[in-house]
Amino acid sequence: MPNQGKSGNIEQTLILIKPDGLKKSLTGNILSKLSETKLIIIASKVVCVSPDLAEKHYTHLKDKPFFQELVEYIQGNHHDCKRVMALVYQGDNAIEKVRKISGATNPEEADPTSIRGAYGRITTKGVYENVIHASSSPSEAEREIKLWFTPEEIVSDLYPSKMVAREKVEVLEWA
Ligand code: UDP
Ligand code: MG
User: Fold this and answer.
1) Cβ-count burial of 27 within 10 angstroms (0-12 exposed, 13-18 middle, 19+ buried)?
2) 3-153 is classed in which CATH architecture?
3) Is 75 in the pocket of ligand 1 (CB under 6 A)?
4) Whose CA is nearest to atom 11 of ligand 1?
5) Every domain of the chain and the residues it spans
6) Which of 47, 72, 109, 144 is the most buried (most CB within 10 A)?
7) pLDDT digits (tens, 9 = 90+) for 131-156
8) Ligand 1, atom 10, residue with closest C-alpha
9) Closest ligand 1 atom to 73 CA
């Protein structure tokens, strides 16, 4: 019987493979695990995270004692790896599906078959190096996707956008 009248809950979620995930060559493993969700990828890129982007991404944690360590971690300063892989996944209940497969924030408490349970660790300074970030609510997902991606970098029109005329903008081209 056709799936009549069943309206899904199509969501988007921001995923970051953090510098420890890249340094440990876990990108393939993490993407394979995420593919179990059957969600689709609508944007992806590798980013060198600036201090400003790191602080904006974790702004909700700025009063926590581990905030400074956390912004160092996401910039790759702990791993000699200044790269993060950023992706947007889309599909039915995307946020919950990705959070579940990622596992609990604390890798010691995460299900051992989850991404964080399998690959995360707690540093001697107490930071949870948990290899992946995943948005935790629709409003957080929208904020984060807009922070990490421009409208042109996403293959579908997610949010209202506008054309802005800019003068004297310099862009880098191949020499
Ligand atoms: N974090 C940490 N110690 C804590 C809580 C969080 O090191 O007690 C780090 C961890 O890397 C986590 C990130 O801060 O992924 C963001 O924390 P949040 O509470 O948003 O957890 P998440 O949404 O990533 O599960
Ligand atoms: Mg969070």
Assistant:
1) middle
2) 2-Layer Sandwich (3.30)
3) no
4) 128
5) 3-153
6) 144
7) 999 999 999 999 999 999 999 999 99
8) 128
9) 11
